[in-house]
Amino acid sequence: MPNYKLHYFNGRGRAEISRLILAASGVNYEDVRVNDWPKTKSDAPVGQLPYIEIDGLKLPQSLSIARYLAREYNLVGKNNLDAAKADAIVDTCIDLMTGFYQKVFLVTDIAEKEVALKKFLSDDAIKGLENVEKLAKQFGSKGFSVGKSLTWADLFIHEITYSLMNYQDNLLDNFQVLKQIREAVESNENIAKYLKNRPVTPF
Ligand SMILES: N[C@@H](CCC(=O)N[C@@H](CS)C(=O)NCC(=O)O)C(=O)O
């Protein structure tokens, strides 16, 4: 097994999907939490975090890292079509979270942010989650968004719903398929152990 060092800030953010994949696969790695940015920016291959060192080779881009790990540890489904279905679900999750970032996270005025968050949760988030659920219903089976076993798409769904439910814990009340996927992810022994011990950070 290669020697992995995953570099990111002390948060879940864009690195958490890779941490979840590594946890689900029971892979040892060094979880480097960078606290001297921007002093170490020049160490990062494109000046951004996350990046992963694979036996010293530095690979940037959160989704390239996650997809590489998912392929390595058989979390992309059983063939190329499954892999494309998982990619489509991940991209739909990304669209949803990009909307959150642009419409809520970047708003600096506290009162405006509160209004933007309320609108996002009651409108954009619901539409985005409907899209994710529609794909999962079409591509997967009970507890899995693609095929009949765990993929990184399930882990991504867990991660984004965890983030959104921090703002509204009943957000998934009308999303039974997504709830089943979350339950299946949490019933994975390695993931359960990881979630129990992971540092609590706001993002
Ligand atoms: N497309 C890149 C975006 C990476 C990115 O925006 N990273 C941010 C943190 S989430 C960063 O490194 N910010 C600090 C900087 O650019 O100096 C990815 O998905 O990895």
UniProtKB/TrEMBL annotation:
Family annotation (PROSITE patterns): GST_CTER, GST_NTER
Catalytic activity: RX + glutathione = an S-substituted glutathione + a halide anion + H(+)
Keyword Lipid metabolism appears in the UniProt entry: no
SUPFAM superfamilies named in the record: GST C-terminal domain-like, Thioredoxin-like
One Pfam assignment: GST_C_3
GO molecular function: glutathione transferase activity; structural constituent of eye lens
BP terms from Gene Ontology: glutathione metabolic process
Keywords: Eye lens protein, Transferase
Domain GST C-terminal: 79-203
Domain of life: Eukaryota
Entry EC number(s): 2.5.1.18
Domain GST N-terminal, chain residue ranges per copy: 2-77
KW Glycosyltransferase (keyword) present: no
Assigned protein family: Belongs to the GST superfamily.
Protein name in the entry: glutathione transferase
